[in-house]
Write a structure and sequence with these properties.
312 residues, globular, single chain, mainly alpha, Rhopdopsin 7-helix transmembrane proteins, 3-stranded mixed β-sheet, disordered N terminus, 10 helices
Length: 312
């Protein structure tokens, strides 16, 4: 069959998680609760950083953007996934499937580059503290965030333009809880070897390069801190520990899935859930519980609300 768009598939069937009705209801309640916490937790972080003058610094500027990205990443697939738990026939339209893939890769790639930008910010703060305010100007911080979105857009567009042109004429069962690029490509009624190589190079290489850059930068920062034992260094180590935890949670599942995207493993489905739901759920907890300034901002916000209520 030639490579023209001869699609006859109008929808895809998602196998989801579990098969019994009691399991579906349990998963519905768990995932709904997680999603509510993700949205509310990240909204609180963004609101605190915008409204609290003590948090108007490059590090928290990047953190606010990371919270926004996490919230959007979950919102791309989770609402649909939650409603599917209560439906017997779990289907998604062809257009809906393509949109899920487009935004999932757009947001995920943007988050990777954003994490690299956050590591660069910490590198400058630790290794070049005297020049920090000059180097990490508002213009540069904004440029780094915009660059992360541009990389994400180029990354996902370079793959989706080929995907929508593939012919889908038969199998339409996706063994996942949402549409994912490697799983959908396998359903095409044509030879997809070249496109599979593109996915490996594009997604896998992007993940590995960003992860290697992060590892190198954190090694340099820890060596620098090791040479300067002080209270400030201890605070910086705590901040870096939170960053590293987020990096491991974000890149671990992604590298496993997309470095070998066309080798199916039973754990892939659960790693996908972990990446789109558990990681955005844990990020606000990590950054608030391990960050004294964030905890102080929460206390100030609560105090202001109490005073406001008493005044009324």
């Amino acid at each position: 069959m030639d490579g023209g768009n001869q699609s006859t598939v109008s929808e895809f069937v998602l196998l989801g998680l579990g098969h019994s009705w009691s399991m579906q209801v349990l998963l519905f309640m768990i995932f709904l609760l997680l999603y509510v916490i993700i949205v509310s937790g990240n909204i609180v972080i963004v609101t605190l950083i915008i409204t609290d003058p003590h948090l108007h610094s490059p590090m928290y500027f990047f953190l606010a953007n990371l919270s926004f990205v996490d919230m959007w990443l979950s919102s791309d697939t989770t609402p649909k996934m939650i409603t599917e738990f209560l439906r017997e026939n779990k289907t998604i339209s062809f257009a809906g499937c393509m949109c899920q893939i487009f935004f999932a890769h757009f947001i995920a790639a943007s988050e990777m580059v954003l994490l690299v930008s956050m590591a660069y910010d910490r590198y400058v703060a630790i290794c070049k503290p005297l020049h920090y305010s000059t180097i990490m100007s508002l213009q540069r911080c904004t440029g780094l965030v915009v660059s992360s979105w541009m990389v994400g857009f180029i990354h996902t567009t370079s793959q989706i333009v080929f995907l929508v042109g593939l012919p889908f004429c038969g199998p339409n069962v996706v063994d996942s809880i949402f549409c994912d690029l490697p799983l959908v490509i396998k359903l095409a009624c044509t030879d997809t070897y070249v496109l599979e190589l593109l996915v490996i190079v594009d997604s896998g290489l992007l993940s590995l390069v960003c992860f290697i850059l992060l590892v190198i930068s954190y090694i340099i920062m820890f060596v620098t801190l090791w040479q300067h034992s002080s209270r400030a260094s201890s605070k910086a180590v705590s901040t870096l520990s939170a960053h590293i935890t987020v990096v491991i949670l974000s890149f671990g599942p992604d590298i496993f899935i997309y470095s070998f995207p066309f080798n199916s493993y039973s754990v892939d489905k659960f790693l996908s859930v972990f990446y789109i739901l558990i990681t955005p759920f844990l990020n606000p907890i990590i950054y608030t519980l391990r960050n004294q300034e964030m905890k102080g901002a929460i206390k100030r916000l609560c105090s202001q609300n109490i005073v406001f209520c008493l005044d009324r």
